[in-house]
Amino acid sequence: MADFLVALSAFDARRGWEPLGHASLFAFLVADLGLSTSSTYWRQSAARLLHDFPELEPHLRQGRLCLTTMAELAKVLTEENSAAVLPRFLGISSREAKEIVAELQPREVPPLRSVVTSTA
């Protein structure tokens, strides 16, 4: 998987999908490789993360990062926070990664609406 993601990262960086008639890497992976949309999302996220952070490759090869965890990591990893954030994602499940993302990117809970009903 690591070899595929490294190659996919380079393929995307040079826009190799464009001469093949695709509008995006996502379209190429779905149409030409026959991947599901969820598999495509995970692979595209991981490949782009590897492009931006090549230092992740050894962690991927050693099994300390998996495909789905990398997709979650891609949502929160920046140059500024990599020293603090990356170690939290090593060797964990995708469920645990989702919890860390939720912690790092909290969302406001939408207000509850009261439903008024007729008492007649």
List keywords for this structure.
120 residues, mainly alpha, 7 helices, 55% helix, extended
What is the structure about, briefly put?
Helices cover 55% and strands 0% of the residues. The chain contains 7 helices and no strands.
Description:
The chain is mainly α and 120 residues long. Helices cover 55% and strands 0% of the residues. The longest helix is centred in the middle third of the chain and has 16 residues, at 37-52. It is extended. 23% of the residues are buried.
The percent range for helix content is: 55-70%
Number of strands: 0
Query: What is the gyration radius calculated from CA atoms?
Result: 19 Å
Mean pLDDT: 93
Biggest β-sheet strands, sense, barrel: none
Name the overall outline: extended
Q: What distance lies between the first and last C-alpha atoms, to the nearest angstrom? A: 65 Å
Q: Helix count?
A: 7
Which stretches are poorly predicted, pLDDT < 50 over at least 5 residues? none
Order of helices and strands: HHHHHHH
Structural class: mainly alpha
- How much beta, percentage-wise? under 5%
